[in-house]
Structures are given as C-alpha cells and as structure tokens.
Amino acid sequence: MYIENQDFLKQLHDNDESALLESFGKISDGCSKHKYFRDYKTLRDDLRQEMLVALWNSRGKFNPEMSSNPFSYFSTIAIRAGLSLIAKERVQNDILS
To answer: Over the chain, what is the mean pLDDT?
Structure first.
C-alpha cells in the first residue's frame, strides 16, 4: 500500500494540509490508473484534477468513529469523481455528434 492508514488518519486528525495534499495526490494518481479509466489516457490529467478536487472538498467529511480506513473512503470518492467526469464527457461527445 502506498499510503499507510494510521499515518493518513493522523494527517486528517491534525489537518496537515501539505501532507494531505501529497496523500490525495497519490490516491488520485493511483485511481486514475484504475481499470475503469484505462481507455481514457487522453483524459488522465483531467481525471487526476477532478479526483483531487473531490478529495480536497471531502477531507472534513471522514468520520473516524465510523471507520478506521480513510484510504478506502477517499479511494471510493476519487473513483466516483472519475466516473462522473467520464459520464460528463460521454454526454458532451453525444451532443457534438
């Protein structure tokens, strides 16, 4: 695993913005290579950016009392943000076609 849950949990608790941005960058980079997005190599930078924005906006919503696995929580957010971007791109392509 490229992010340790305990370290990530501490970053969230301490609200260490620079460490959180680094961790979110790693998550968005890893999730942009997920099997769902392999065919969208031209959108990879857009995917990373969309995921990073979604992760940053969700940083205060993680509840450690509900789960001690912030990596899973934020990975799910990143993947859903990527899927949302792909859906928007498909609609855009349908409109232009």
So the answer is: 93
Is the whole-model pTM more than 0.85? Answer: yes
Between helix 5-14 and helix 70-96 the angle, nearest 10°, is 80
The structure tokens 């969208």 sit at: 40
Q: How far is Cα 51 from Cα 49, in angstroms, rounded to an integer?
A: 5
Distance CA 13, CA 87 (A): 33
Instruction: For residues 7-27, give the mean pLDDT.
Output: 95
Q: How confident is the model at residue 17 (pLDDT cuts 50, 70, 90)?
A: very high
Q: How many CA atoms lie within 13 A of 57 on its CB side?
A: 9
- Kindly report the three-state secondary structure assignment for every residue of 34-95: CHHHCCCHHHHHHHHHHHHHHHHHCCCCCCCCCCCCHHHHHHHHHHHHHHHHHHHHHHHHHH
